[in-house]
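U., I forgot to send this yesterday:
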Amino acid sequence: MSLLRFLTAGAAAAAATVGARSYLQKNPPGGEERWMRTNHRGEPISLMEGPEVAAGVAAGALVGSLAGSHGVRPALAATVATAGAAYFGEMDDLHEDTSVRTKGIKGHVGALMHGELTTGGMKILGIGGSAMAAAAIGTPGGKGGKRWMVDTAVNGALIAATANLLNLLDLRPGRALKSTAILTALPAAGPLATAGTGAVVGAGAAAWSDDLGERTMLGDAGANALGALAGTRLALGWPLPLRAAALAGTVALTVISEKVSFSQVIADTPWLRAVDDFGRRAA
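Result:
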């Protein structure tokens, strides 16, 4: 049954990713130019992969989790978390004011403290809100009870923090896809254990060629959506002590990223560099 759920989720995710790609290539919202950016090589690249992969992982998680016997709440939680992360990530992708050098959570929160709402600040608030909504929907137990409130708070924070962490890793082709695949391969119980992994593998397989070929990139929309699904899988599949430890580790990595370049750490670590370079064009 688990294998069937994995295959069902993967097939649905791949089909949805390919379908979204076909539609968006023919009907790019606002025109194709609106989605073009410059990558780390200084070459033009499209952000269209973000909504394509977001549609894929959302569809895969939804179909895969509904194929089990866990009810509709986990499927709805995964959909809310993924869709919210993708929406607010895409808002930042397309509407960010590039003339203002506000970067990182520290920069955007600092701007909020001074009464300035950046697109990054809107993303932090929006993903935080959708993550908490997803946690409230998917967290089992008596609604309103003390234990349920603690579980929901930890789950929502973990979903939001993981969404942000995967976005921080999305600085080179394939890095976020690989990182999410590794994260969703971690053992977990619960309604999204198999469906979440299948959704990430299916959508990643459909996006692999264009991403690693540097024709398209995930952007905030795709990376945040992948991270939100991975976080939801852990939130609904790990016991509280593990979830709390994962949240602490994710927050610690986020804080470290303000001072340390993940790309430099990867480049200086042979085995990480080998994984990071796999399938990518030569420098």
